[in-house]
UniProtKB/TrEMBL annotation:
GO CC term, one of those recorded: endomembrane system
Name this protein carries in UniProt: DUF445 domain-containing protein
Protein keywords: Membrane, Transmembrane, Transmembrane helix
Species this protein is from: Leptonema illini DSM 21528
PANTHER family per the UniProt record, alphabetical: UPF0754 MEMBRANE PROTEIN YHEB
Amino acid sequence: MNEKKTANTGPGTGHPTFDRFLDRWLHRFVPDEEPGEPEGPAAKSHFNAVMLFLKALPWLTGIVFLVSLKWDVSGSWNLPWRDAPVMLDGLIRMVAVTGLVGFGTNYIAIKMLFHPRKRRPLLGQGLIPASKQKIARKLGESISKEIINSDLILKQVKQEGLVRRHMQSFNRSMRETLALPEFRDDLLRMLEHYLNRIIKSDEFRSSMHAFVKGFDFEGLGGLESGLLKIYRFIGGDREIADRILEALDSMTLSLDHHEKTLNEYLDRLPDWIESNDDFVEDVILNTVIFLVERINIQNIVTRNLEGFDEMRLEKLLLYSTSDQLDYIQYLGCILGILGGLFIWLPLESFILFGAAGAGLFLIDATLMRMKGDR
């Protein structure tokens, strides 16, 4: 027991400081966490045939391009609705080149988002590294306004019923802790420690000195006036305020004679909280709101993001967008191939792919509508 008290005392004192008092006792008031719903098994990565095809397509297109350097189609193709035949010479090479160009432009565009990481004399700097300060500022502003703010937190706490849910277990923990003699002794000694610090502080001494000097002792009458004259006769002519300050310096307050009163309040506290649960909930919610409003979320987020180096910022963004960026990158090859067909047969390609795109859109819209009606 003595070792615990010694470990929780402030330097040079026999009393527990507030920080050490919290370190020792605060965890006893916090109720044990309720077991949450068991998390489901981690989602397994499924085989993605579409992505595999898209990743293989640029390589296949490159092989086709190399083959077309040695061999390509030739001749013509007669279409019923065309007066002149359509020439096939160099078709494979043209489609392969446009496919590679489409993939290459998307690849370079995505790489230019992050590279060069450092500003270079001719190549400049990637879009995201160059805009790191602006991105950090905008993200900090958006998070503080739209994600972490007092209104949203208050709404979430009320919807989840977090305070009500933990109130019973909190009261149980509080009853057990308040009943401990060690807790009550630590609390009493901490109060003594800070009361003595207050009466010996410069601010309190100055206030007390000003109060006593402003008091009209000469206007006292009757017994008080006689006692004041006797005091001055015995103690000399020094000001009463100075003598009071000397007395404050030499005295040490003790709350031992108030221990019974303190224990009575501690005994009644859990019952009072249970009978005033609405008031306690409002106090807790207002305290949470007060703390959130005093924390500058925008500055915290902005400073942390500004402290990221370019490599870490790139990893952060790629962690959440790499799949989408891969799709964009490899779809460039397909779009390039389609572009080559548009160059070869503009009108026919426009009609064919336009009809295919419209049909795909209608099917997607129908599926979405059916999903929403369920």
